[in-house]
Amino acid sequence: QKYSSLCPLCPVYKYQAIIFYEDRNFQGRHYECSSDSADLQSYFSRCNSIRVESDFWVLYERPNYRGYQYVLTRGEYPDYQRWMGYNDSIRSCRTYPYYRGGSYRMRVYERPDFGGQMMEFMDDCPSVYDRFRYRDIHSCNVMDGYWIMYDQPNYRGRQYFMRPGEYRRFSDWGSSSSTIGSFRRMRDFF
């Protein structure tokens, strides 16, 4: 395990959680981060590779946890395509501990405010249309576990991190569209 001080004058050493690199293959300037950060802009101008050493992280294309989301688990990502990135812009990040509960449960609805047809899921869904008969999910209630929604089938496309709570409309989970192609449980592995 690697340990590093975020401040060279501080005697307290913390476990490195994530390292952002400006260039591919872990080259160039880098920044070590061990907690949520609403604005990473002053630490690096672009991000082309990442090492995640603990927990899992939700990265955002814009400051203040906005824009496209990317969910990363422990591992190495030598270029932004490896985390399904659309570009080299990472401007904010949040960390979450792994979910230690045994059950996962989420209800999805065809209309806003939990209206219309509802279906409950406890496992991964590679094709929303095949299971739900709709391509659009307008609201959802996550009861147990962390989930990731994707705008395309087979866990591809834009990602939306879902933690327990009520999402009355698709904008509540950061989407500009109700189209969801697939979703899966956020676990220690993919």
TrEMBL record:
It comes from Callorhinchus milii (Ghost shark). SUPFAM superfamilies: gamma-Crystallin-like (SSF49695). One of its GO terms (molecular function) is structural constituent of eye lens. One of its GO terms (biological process) is visual perception. The gene is LOC103182959. Residues 16-54, 55-97, 104-144, 145-187 form the Beta/gamma crystallin 'Greek key' domain. Crystallins are the dominant structural components of the vertebrate eye lens. This is Gamma-crystallin M2-like. Keywords: Eye lens protein, Repeat. SMART domains: XTALbg. Belongs to the beta/gamma-crystallin family.
